[in-house]
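In this section we walk through a basic example: taking a raw amino acid sequence and producing a predicted 3D structure, encoded as discrete structure tokens. The instruction is simple. Fold the sequence below.
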Amino acid sequence: MTQKLPIVMLLLLALLPLAGAQAAPAAAPASSAFGINSHISSRYPGVSGMGKAADAVAQLQVGWAREDFQFSRIAPRKGAYDWSFFDAGVNHLSQRGVQIVGLLNGPTPAWASASGRGGFAPPTPAAYAEFVGAVVARYKDRVHHWQIWNEPDNAAYWSPAPDPAAYAALLKAGYAAVKQADPSALVLSAGIVSPEPATSFLKAIADNGAWGAFDILAIHPYVDPRSPEDGQIAAAGVGQVKVLADKLGAKPIWATEFGWSTGAGDRKGNRVDEQTQASYLVRAMALLREAGVEKLFWYTLKDLSASEGLGLLRYAGSTTSYADPKPAFSALRTMASQLGSAAPQGMLDFGQRRVVWDAERFGTWKRGNQPNGTFAASAAQAHSGGASGELRYSFPSAGNDYVVFTAADPIDIGSPSQVGFWVYGDGSGHALKVWLRDAQGEVLQYRLGFVGVGWQFLSASVGGAVERYNRISGGGNLRLDLPATLTAIVLDDEPDKSSGSGAIYLDDLTAVSGADAYGARFGVGGGVVDVLWAPGEAQISLPTSSASGTITAPDGTQRSISASGGQFTLSLGPSPILLAHQGGGSPAQPAAPQPTAAPQADPQQRCFDETGFCIGGRIREFWEQNGGLPVFGLPIGPQQAEVVEGATLQVQRFERNRLELHPENARPYDVLLGRLGADRLAQLGRDWQSEFPSTSAASGCRFFRETGQNVCGEILAAWRASGLELDGQAGPSEAESLALFGLPLGPAHEESMADGQRRTVQWFERARFELHPENQPPYRVQLGLLGSEIVR
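The resulting token sequence is shown next.
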């Protein structure tokens, strides 16, 4: 494993020049969240000289590159393969330590197309599977992530028209072919522009039985020409997709394309200037990471003509020149070098919050012309006080259904920079919107966000201009001239094709005033790096426990700043800054209101600040007696009733397992463990019995005849070191180890983890053992976080 570099060294690396290096630079580790659509194998004009393009990728300090593996270029004729360009590209990137996402993409050769047309007409599933199997088998030693096609929601890549059912068939065929050639590889769904048509298309994929045919969900959150904030790249681009994925079966989310163009030849002519492109890159990446996106791939590395502009490198009159960077090149390098493996810690909150309406002052609301729901005060849920507004909806058609409720007395919101509701959601994913009347009488519509599960704060900035279709009435400048009032609440079906009924609850309409500024906090080493900006101009005060901090601009230049009175005073603008310091204050946004009298802690419970959950009673006793944190991990939910194999049980989920209460059994069997190893393999669509055929006993190993598998070496030692306490004797017996971990389901072998790392793992009924050779004993063998993976 690559050793972590100190922050100072990382900042120096960010300042390396683009050209002139004599040795091939090394990229960031695979744990980096950042990547680039490089396309050097498919777009560089010749095999000779391709190393220059790979050097540019490595100099970005990103850990990942997304590379096209084009069907027609590799297999122009059935069974005839030309690997020359792709061998060169894979070799160059791998030698520089860059991990590759292989995009198994068109154009389709005519022989493989059902229509015989070729181009981006989809291939037959059988022909595509043959192609996929050949590619994965050739590169499985260096490429461990494969993506099945690109934007099948777009007629440009799925002609003559998008067809979710046909893509689902291709996805299932491609997934099976990848897993047959390399069972440990991870499969990405095609990237689809989010939130729409991604949500509709993903729902159709699931309806056609293909939700289990990928491991990682890919999206393309393009919001251009709007800014990341006005385009709600996080709330809309990710939020609605996450709500849907949580309903269908949660998966890691990667953004395999997004960007803004500086040229008129891309994205329907939408363009920004080069400095704005660099600023949007940093702001979008910070927002997407905080929204839960695990990997981010900017589109693209280089402009291939004078009219293109999405690239980080200018065309400069040549397709072979990689020495003319735009400001966005340095901006991505700065993000990758400082925040490559950093953990998101939440959005910072700079505004003053004022509740301007709650359900205790419900008032009178009139439904519009759409007979699609009701809105009334209810005691069923409350964010504060004893009531909320229950919005019941019924969307009957596959068209655009919505319901509007107008306030008899418009609600004065004053002059806020942001407005939002606390919403208790049913997971429907529908869009909550508000109508605001400004001082000139113009009524504008703002989308607050998408309805998830449980209480969440949905909000929107009201400082920018809205589109013309979001003007409800009146005339004016399409901007909210303050002060303003809220006149109506709207629930709009998302996607339009969805139908059904349900209920959500609204409480504590909140106006946020003060600086219209943004901050995203990331944990780095023992401190934090805050990414800070304001769409306009704003001054903020930021709490800190440091005497001074270091500010890095997107171009990599740095300066020191001193704190005064435990805080930094900063002037922010559209160009972000990265502030490294020791932190201070709470980064969480928004925080729920605290009760006036804090409840007394239950002395029988043990609570964990890391997750906010407690354990008590028999589950706490069992957890503490049988290995605690190393074996079970932290609690990731409360003790609650769940249906397990047809029976309703009290269970509690932990990072590494699920504990089930069976009071009908005598101790110690009144607490049983979930078969999370077998469950996780099934969730991934992997049949361990066919994937891991039985074998014979091996010397020096423990052979389990029940599954035909050997357990050896360090994993065997770790398996024997822990067990459930069953016999009252000191030290774990083999029966106790078996009760804790279960039987081995397969041999020790290498697999790609979701973070991109390759590790030796061995699956058991109730656990996954992982080798971490970079650690000192006894931490070289660790248990996988199966509980968290299954819940996620």
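Looking at the output, two observations stand out. The longest strand covers residues 500-513. The two ends are 26 Å apart (CA to CA). In the next section we compare this with other chains.
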